[in-house]
Known about the structure:
By secondary structure, the protein is an alpha+beta fold. It is about 35% helix and about 25% strand. The chain contains 4 helices and 6 strands, in the order αβββαββααβ.
Amino acid sequence: MMCNGATFDEVLFHIHGLIERFGWAVVPVGHRLPSTWAYTIGLVEVDHPELTVKGMPPEMAGRLLNRLGDLILDGRKFRDGQEITVGTRRYRFASVPDRQLENGRFAIWVNYYGALGPPHPEPRFLDVVPQGQRRKRS
């Protein structure tokens, strides 16, 4: 959105609207494969870790994270090591190391909850790793 001229406040307001309407928002990061990735904001509010997926085109990542978000709002809980099939593809969930939370990779998440004011939720994330893909260490 900011690439299209939106201010940072407008981006945060848009994210807030998505969370109010659907229960979460998907934030795409990057535009060139294989370095693209996306993550959710809002699932922590229903006592579930946020989700992140790497190396997918933004539209595909959004569809996957939205499908998983629907399952979570329907009561499903995912945890480290668990597997799930979505469509014809199998995925594994893996905890995101704390160092990823500390190095600014989830800046929009931090800024969104910072803008809302205290109390701030505890940041928790799970990687959604496609079967056959090794999880990249970063």
